Amino acid sequence: MKKLAAFLTLAMIFAMSAGAFAADPSATFTLTPSATQLTLGETVTVTYKAKFANAGGKIAGLQNIVKYDTSVFEFVSASKGTDLPSAAEPETGTAGEVGFGLTSLTGDAVSDNKDYVIGSMTLKVKSGAAFGTATLTQTETMFMLPDFEERTPSAQALSLTIAKAPTGTITITTTPAEGKWSIDGGSTWKDSGSSVSELALGRYKVTFKELAGYTKPEDISVELAKTAPTFTKSVTYTGKPGFIAVTFTPESIAETAQWSVDRETWYNGGTAQEIPSGAYTIQFKEIEGYETPAQQEITVEKDQTAAITAEYIEKPAITPAKAEFYKKSPEDLAFTLKGITAVTAVKIADEDLIDGEDYEYADGTLTVKQTVFAEKENGEYQLTVTTDKGDLTAAVKIADEKSSGSSGGCNAGFGALAMLFAAPLFYRKKK
Fold it and tell me: Nearest CA to 35 among 27, 24, 46, 23?
């Protein structure tokens, strides 16, 4: 502190030549840190400020010493303040101390109750420092005019906390679970679903281990920060390709039917489709008039073809659902039956019909003889066909002749075998 003392001595001589002044000035001093909580290796800048009252022309000089613990901090730098021209260059020659000062305030314009920066210093927390509280202390000596009386304000202190640096955590889950990951380039491999904790904040690269039959995921760049100290992600190993081949039955719907593993992309049957190896649920597209096959679970192996068959079953149906019979132009009525293999009974309203006499069924076509309808009173009747898949019903309207607003013939469009009778009809009573 010899250089600072020399400046102050010169200041005193200059102040004496300026004449004597009344006393009673005051000053308060503060140390303001750039941060109050520090971690190992972190730096902190401490600013030394003074606030004066009734000081103009009454303070000949100022000397301040800030002390720090050399087991906690190492000195980095110090600089004088620029608020007052009389600020002196800091003294740093003694370990654990930094001296600040003013050579004289007699030539400075000083306002009351205003903070003036006298100087600042930067310290670095040593890597081996103990965690806890570190205290910086300061002492000030003011030299008063006119007789250079020394005044020592109360010692100021600044407490800083030395704490562990904030840490982060990385958690990675892989599919399949046999996948492994690393943050050190593969020196250490972690299991799927595991975490690495107590990581220093910063950037990391997550890499993945090769897995037979799969293409490993792309590397992931992770940034752990105070605002986002935790990173969690699920990744998928892509299976090396195999194939899926689906055969649809019956052949009549083979060109219409399709399959999918995600209900977004649909594939036609018959051709093997390349797809990453792995487990899949095969789903099938709906086709009107058919029951959709149940979904199937399959596993696709690398370079292998998983072949399956899916059967669409035609839903039982009768067409036309409504038919008309005209007594003045009688015809047999023909109905097409789908999704069934056998007809076991037929009746009109509550009257049972006789197979071979009242109706015939062959190759999906049910033919009901005109004699069944000709003897009925006009009106609507329900035709019930009992099959191996349950009952099918159709409505039959009986009238003398086709009305002017009716479209088509008596049974137009139904493929009926027309029989036109010129002779009078013979009726028989049903049992």
Answer: 46
